[in-house]
Amino acid sequence: MYAIGDLADLPEADMAGFAMQHAEMVAKNISAQLRGEQPVEVYRPLGHPMILLPLGIRGGVGQLPSPDGPFAAPTAMVSESEGVDLFTGRFLGRFGPNAARAKAPVRGPGPSRGDGGVSRSGARPRSRSRR
Known about the structure:
With 131 residues, this protein is α+β, with helices and mostly antiparallel strands. A hairpin with a 6-residue loop joins strand 2 (60-64) and strand 3. A three-stranded antiparallel β-sheet has the order 1-2-3, with helices on one face. The chain contains three helices and three strands, in the order αβββαα. 8% of the residues are buried.
C-alpha cells in the first residue's frame, strides 16, 4: 500500500510539490512491481522546507535546500523557473490543452457537494420542512 501527498505521514509540510515527488517515487515502485521486480525507491524528506512562490511573471520568492542548509531563492530564479507560465506548463504536458474543458463525472443525486448527500460523518442531511 502506498500513500502520497496529504495522506503520507511524513515530517514535512502538506504541499503539492512534495506530493508530486511522492507520486514519482510511487509510480516507479508500482512499475517495478508490474514488471515482477521488487520496489526499491524510498522517499526521504528534505531536511529543510522548500517552496517557490511566483508573484506574477516577473516576481517571486522562495526557499530551496542546499548542502549548506536552506537559502533564499533570488527573484530572478523563481520567476524564470515558475513565474513564466505560473505552473501551468507542467500540467499541460500531462493532461493536454483541453483538460480544463472535460466535464467532471456526476456522483449521485446528493446536494451540490457531489457526494451523494452523505456528510463526512456518514449521516445524510436532514431535509428542511416548512411549518
